[in-house]
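Run log // design_07
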């Protein structure tokens, strides 16, 4: 079983950026629940499985991706706050970090182990992609609607939809990690 302590070990530096203790605990609870429901029993799996099945990941793991997206979204927020004398919208950092950590949690339900060290799309994943399953799980654990928006709308499901600003930041950080891989794999990335 993957425990709260395992998740705190995996995402400790990011979790420590969430000031609201109850929110931090809920983020961990959602992860523990997602791992149990998805059949993931060893936290090392999260450090090993690819972060997407849509393109070749070149070894970038689920956990690395989640950290990169969370830190990337935070970096975008801090850059705007530093550069702009008056930012015309407020960015909630607790919401941003919690949403960054949880944006892909539904992948732990969308993917399953293939029994040979890799993973494949699960039946649950065929029924609902990770933005949907992750949003449902977060709602069940009482995460605020705005964090449900980040999870539900960070990918194509959110195109053209109302979004909190933190969703926009997580989306941009997410695609900054994804698009170059797709381009590398189809020969469009100039290296
Ligand atoms: Fe992602």
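design_07 sequence
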């Amino acid at each position: 079983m993957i425990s709260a302590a395992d998740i705190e070990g995996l995402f400790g530096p990011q979790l420590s950026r969430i000031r609201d203790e109850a929110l931090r605990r809920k983020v961990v609870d959602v992860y523990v629940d997602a791992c149990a429901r998805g059949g993931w029993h060893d936290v090392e799996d999260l450090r090993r499985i690819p972060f997407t099945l849509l393109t070749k990941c070149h070894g970038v793991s689920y956990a690395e991706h989640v950290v990169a997206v969370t830190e990337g979204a935070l970096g975008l927020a801090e850059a705007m706050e530093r550069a702009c004398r008056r930012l015309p919208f407020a960015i909630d950092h607790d919401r941003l970090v919690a949403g960054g950590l949880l944006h892909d949690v539904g992948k732990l339900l969308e993917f399953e182990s293939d029994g040979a060290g890799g993973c494949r799309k699960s039946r649950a994943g065929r029924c609902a992609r990770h933005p949907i399953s992750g949003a449902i799980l977060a709602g069940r654990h009482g995460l605020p609607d705005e964090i449900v928006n980040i999870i539900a709308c960070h990918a194509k499901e959110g195109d053209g939809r109302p979004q909190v600003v933190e969703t926009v930041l997580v989306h941009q950080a997410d695609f900054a990690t994804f698009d170059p891989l797709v381009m590398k794999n189809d020969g469009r990335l100039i290296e």
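Strands lie at 111-113, 119-121.
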